[in-house]
């Protein structure tokens, strides 16, 4: 695996490097990403399998996940992780 020379001597990125204490959102790749977006998406994705497709609860989770999906794409989550769930994979693909 090759690395670009701009990343060879940089220290590891810490959470506070991305989002300093007291700041609730930041712009990443032109997209405003709110603190908690990844955790909220993951919590909803885990719960999705417990619900029945076509119910209001399922629809509400999918709607929230679709709203969060562009932020996850902006931070590069899809570049390093693949969903186990086909439903979650579809939701992320629709955000492309």
Walk me through the structure.
It is a single chain. A hairpin with a 2-residue loop joins strand 1 and strand 2. A two-stranded antiparallel sheet has the order 1-2. The chain contains five helices and two strands; from the N terminus they run H-E-E-H-H-H-H. It is mainly alpha-helical and 96 residues long. The chain is elongated, with a radius of gyration of 16 Å. The two termini are 26 Å apart. The N terminus is likely disordered.
Task: State the major sheet.
Answer: 2 strands, antiparallel
Helical content (DSSP H or I, runs of 4+): 40-55%
How large is the radius of gyration? Answer: 16 Å
Secondary-structure-derived class: mainly alpha
What's the N-to-C terminus distance?
26 Å
Low-confidence stretches: 1-5
Strand order of the largest sheet: 1-2
| Number of helical regions | 5
The percentage of residues in β strands lies in 5-15%
Mean pLDDT: 89
């Amino acid at each position: 695996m090759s690395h670009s020379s701009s990343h060879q001597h940089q220290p590891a990125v810490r959470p506070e490097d991305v989002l300093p204490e007291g700041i609730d959102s930041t712009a990443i790749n032109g997209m405003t990403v709110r603190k908690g977006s990844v955790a909220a998406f993951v919590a909803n994705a885990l719960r999705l399998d417990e619900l029945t497709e076509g119910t209001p609860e399922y629809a509400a989770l999918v709607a929230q996940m679709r709203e969060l999906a562009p932020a996850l794409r902006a931070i590069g989550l899809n570049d390093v992780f693949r969903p186990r769930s086909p439903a979650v994979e579809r939701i992320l693909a629709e955000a492309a």
